[in-house]
Amino acid sequence: MAEANSQSDTLVVLTALEVEYEAVRAHLAALRTHSHSAGTLFETGWLDGTPWQVALAEIGDGNQAAAVLTERAVRLFRPRAVVFVGVAGALKDDIRLGDVVVATHVYACHGGKEENGRFLARPRVWPIRHELEQLAKHVRRTGSWTRLLPPSPGDRHPSVHLKPIAAGEVVLNSADSPLRRQLRQHYQDAVAIEMEGAGVAHAAHLNAALPALIVRGISDRADGRKYDADAEGWQRIAARNAAALAFSTLRELPVGSDRPAVEDPPARGTAVVFVSAPTSPSPETGRWRGGEEVEVPGGLYLLHDEYLEEHPSSDRSLIQRQALARRLDLTGQSASRYVWLRQIEARRDTPEARAAKRALADEHQLHERLRQRIGGLPGTSSLTSHGRTDVLAVGWPVSRTTGAPCQTLHAALGREGEPVDPWRQHRLLTGLAGLCGTLAALHDHGVTHRCLGLSAVIAHDDGRLVLRDLGLATRPPRPGEGPAEHQAPEQRRRASGERPGAWTDVHQLGALAYRLITGHLPLPGTPLPLRAHVPDVPEPVDRAVRAALAQDPAERPAPRAFGAALRSACDELPRGV
Fold this sequence. Notes:
This protein is an alpha+beta fold and 577 residues long. It is built from 14 helices and 22 strands.
């Protein structure tokens, strides 16, 4: 399936209570379990109707736990943003039970100094990222988020407030206490109080100012009657409302990020939701797991987990799966053939399901028609159907020296921020130049790939690069398509101007070259020269790659011209060790 979904940007959403967990989990599909090396458990699932994948984990309450596990998740998953979804106590009379507060900024309200019988506040504050604030205001203005809520008596919907929130270290349940008086005196504009937002915001700030969003449903008034409100079910209502507002806001978040990734996440395209009480994932019929054998129309296969992905459609009418697999004979013995296996399981006969099945069949026909004419395409393919399930198996090249499947360009990427040496530069650029010829030949036949990420390109032992599949060639262009990390400007959501086309493939190849050489993703707009990261990169290499990354598609070279520029630039690099 398209890599646009497999390499989406990531999110982190945290909660602290089981009721919050259940409210978040209700928005997710196709749940799976993952474990961090330190023992933290994650449950990953897809946010329906978006490219976001979400992982759930337990953290408990308190700012310290929130900060520690936010840091752990950020390092593990490299998210696009971090979001906390939960409940809170109201501090103002005009904030009603069930209302939702989006923090414009978060106060850490327990910092201060006691002197001569007086408390002198030393506040710390973290503001919301402007982009997220604007999206939350847009969702509030349109009221679209209330469609996720059940009907309410008298059509009274909860209000959304964008106001400051205080985050402390104790549960406040008193209308007149030292903490309540402290809040009135030093944090008078705070409209709600909770216990995790400061930890989340602080950890996000320390990670290159990662965007953070705190969304709280009001479950009590922090006035001594909290337990009565809990008994009336307001925690469940407040958590449900906060989750609806948060996910409605995240649906508006543009795919792609202006944050350079620090490292490839272990599960690409994963968002994280931390929660307080994990539950067992619901079983999924036909789910694929690495290391297991699956029998599908066309044969028996042993699945590898390196590129294994599973995505439900927005309306859940179909499930699309893909994996590197080894063909087995009926006795379970290896048939010594590796394939790129893609399956579509249509659960209902909908236009989206029919379109996905048609695109898979069209890709098979297109591949078989062009395979003998164009070099650099995948190996032989076969399409089999049985009832509601279609499976496309495409040959995957095997290393002549090890007999193992050849690796994708992910293997050529060093540690994030670590450039490759000149010899590897020469090898990679020569391979990319050859791939320019493959893409140019596809373009001659009216076909564009538009989905060139690291895992979409396979490297042979001798350095030749071939396509894993035909990407989005049989699908019409749409906003937000393509691998988020290497999207061309014309592919980004809400982008205007040119539609994706041959020039898009050139931009994505340029982004791949930039990342492989420098160890950094090119920044959107005008990226830094390659020599800003790798001073000894020859000027022709720098010039050729940056030309391919031009924002205006008309200013990018044609694929064959880009390939020629890369070959010419390679003359400036050493050819051997």
